[in-house]
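Per-residue structure
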Amino acid sequence: QVQLEESGGGLVQAGGSLRLSCVTSGRTISYDTMAWFRQAPGKEREFVAATIWSGITYDRIYADSVKGRFTISRDNAKNTVYLQMNSLKPEDTAVYYCARRTTLGNQYDTWGQGTQVTVSS
């Protein structure tokens, strides 16, 4: 029932920007933790960013490698989470995945299919 679908990946030159989108169907994301992960060839999947409902406000968490360059945001009315990626570097090249976990869960139980981001130098 719950499905996540990423879009917005592509090829961009170093220093350029991309905006990824993740649309969730089958569930309202308002109180879900939504996150972005990425996996480069030959490497393990790594955490990129998350937006978390604390019960009061939305907190944003970033990996050190993307802090200051990437921004995660959400539009609950559209059931969509975004990842704005600026100042892209070749090392950002990876398949980017959207994932969610519920307020009662501590694991990401639903994942998107991934979208390829390639940054050329």
Observations:
- The longest strand covers residues 18-25.
